[in-house]
Predict the 3D structure of the following.
Amino acid sequence: MREVETSSGNSIFVLDEPGEGGASRDYRVCDGKGEWNPASVEHASVVFMGGGPGGGRGCTNEDLLLILIDRLRGFQGGEFPCRENAIALTNLEQALMWLERRERRVSRGRGT
């Protein structure tokens, strides 16, 4: 298990070793105490698909970006709109576009 550096005040733990493709897939976000407590109700789990396309159950990078995009759009349409959110939103949408382009290229058999 390793911890990902964060400035949010939360602790992010990676629970598995990198797998196929070199990436880990099992993450937990815990409250800001910096301690791993699997029984804590104050944590969120993010489990990504293993391997490449069709790599089993779990979320994709694109899924996580869509969640963040939806959340920032909510802030921008609510009482917390700001320039920083707008810039972050634009960059997340660009990241999603590039990942979707990659997926189209892979589906045509042109690499990863």
Remarks:
- The mean pLDDT is 85.
- The helical segments are 61-77, 83-107.
- The radius of gyration is 16 Å.
